[in-house]
Amino acid sequence: MEIDGQGACTTLNSPPLNVTDNLLDSSLDFVNGSFARMVRSYAMIDPTPTRGYQDVLLFLALEDVQGLAALNTPLLTATGGAAGDRLRFFVGMAHLKPIRSSNRLVVSSSQVEINADITTSYQYTTQTSTDFTFIRDVRVQLSEVKLAGAPEGASTIKFATITIIVPDTLTQADAVNIIPPLSLKVGVGFNSDQISFTNYPCVQTYSGANKDAIDAMLLAQKECALQDPICSAQGPVPIGPGGSIEFTFPLDDQVWNATQLDDDSLQLRESIFIDFMVSAVDANGKRLITNLQTSTVLKRSSILSRCTDQLVDASISEILTIDMFLGLVGENASFSESLVQNLDVTRQITPTNMRRDISSKASNVMTMLIKGDDSLFAQNFAQEYTLAVEDVITLHFLDKTKLASVQSMINLDTAFRQVTAPTGTLRFAFSSHNSFLEFKRISQNI
Q: CA 262, 86, 108, 19 torsion: positive or negative?
């Protein structure tokens, strides 16, 4: 209400007038409760204990979604009669972080698009032995990988990943053959009864020379391409009450094309249907077998594109230029006389000492200028990119002997040690020398 009353945040560079930490009352609950203008839909925090994250459970009532949230497209039968509605809507979450020392507000958000067909006819398959299946959930993620150096619009290598949530009684040995590769069949069509193209991906697509080419492509583009085992299950990874099994396999090039995905005039789109068998052994040694079929609408928002953006080296010297200045200057004429400069320190081979012969408040001020390199920030896609400094660490020595010892260690490249965590991620960087210098930095991005 305060932001709306001020007319703030409506255009660029129009922040609220007061500190945003005062705008949001952190004692209020912005997650649990009903949605605005909706009668039955609500959200709540999952009370189940988790490790490192917290789930938000959404209950979306059909009448609320149809009336307020979704785009409705009528579904018609082959004779032109009404068969129901196709609902298209998105569910999103925003994280608002007020800032105490500025009138800015940091907002990060994410959303996922949902398509649901509400039909007037239903199909139900009965269970033979129990009233539930041992499969808790099944999800499909479609993706495509652009070949290195391929022109815009060229064919991509297509993949699908099946994720299955299973009971916690499933063991690692069971996961290997939970989806028999020979049972996996892919079809494309407007519905499951009108399939225009079928393929057995783990037998026909991922075999022979094509298999070797796919493996070589994934290895060559490991920075951006998926690195999952192909046509082989991996898992389970503990998720909630059960485990997660992932099975990735390649798709034939005919499954979709860029023209088909980018055509916004299509009212009725084809779907990809994946039929497969799931086989597992429970805690009593009994084998459980079931057949599953998934369907995913073929459109741009359903497919994850990989290796499409220009790669940028992550080293500091590739993306940043850092200039350092010691002292202050009041006019342009005395700039070179009153200021000690150390330009482009990121690309210097040997360190440079900055020294002033006098000591005063003005002469002891150090300025660091961090500039984005044009090779990255001059690109069209980087128009909104900004640089942010997370931490700056300075060390001060009042003893010349200790200073000389540290300078000698720096020159010999022994002042810093980097420790790699067991997972292979660099997590710790620290420097120590006897008892006069010791600090420790913990970060995910060093």
A: positive
User: How many other C-beta atoms can be found within 10 angstroms of the C-beta atom of residue 342?
Assistant: 17
For 376, the enclosing helix (H) or strand (E) is helix 374-377
Q: What is the largest CA-CA distance in the chain?
A: 93
Closest CA to 252 of 232, 233, 274, 234: 274
Question: In this structure, how many other beta carbons lie within 10 angstroms of the beta carbon of residue 364?
Answer: 12
* Residue with token string 């209020």: 28
Residues 98 and 149 in one domain: no
DSSP H helices, 136-273, are 172-175, 208-220, 258-262
Distances from the Cα of 138 to the Cα of 77, 125, 163, 335, angstroms: 28, 17, 6, 67
Number of domains present in the structure of the chain: 4
Instruction: Report the C-alpha gap between 77 and 193 in whole angstroms.
Output: 13
171-193: per-residue pLDDT in tens? 656 566 778 888 899 999 888 77
**How far apart are the C-alpha atoms of 298 and 72, rounded to whole Å?**
18
The reply to whether 380 and 405 lie within a common domain is no
Question: Is the domain of 215 the same as that of 247?
Answer: yes
Please, which pLDDT band fits residue 309 given cuts at 50, 70 and 90?
Answer: low
Question: For residue 107, what pLDDT is reported?
Answer: 80
Distance CA 340, CA 319 (A): 24
Burial 251-289 (b: 16+ CB within 10 A, else e): bbeebbeeeebeeeeeeeebbbbbebebebbeeeeeebe
pLDDT tens sequence across 36-65? 899 999 999 888 877 777 888 999 998 999
User: Whose CA is closest to 272, among 190, 179, 204, 201?
Assistant: 190
Within a domain: residue 177?
Answer: yes
Exposure letters 303-315 (e unless 16+ CB within 10 A, then b): beebbeeeeeeee
Contact 87, 65 (CB under 8 A): yes
The answer on 19 and 141 residing in a single domain is no
- Domain that includes residue 379, residue range: 312-389
Q: Per the domain annotation, does 126 fall within a domain?
A: no
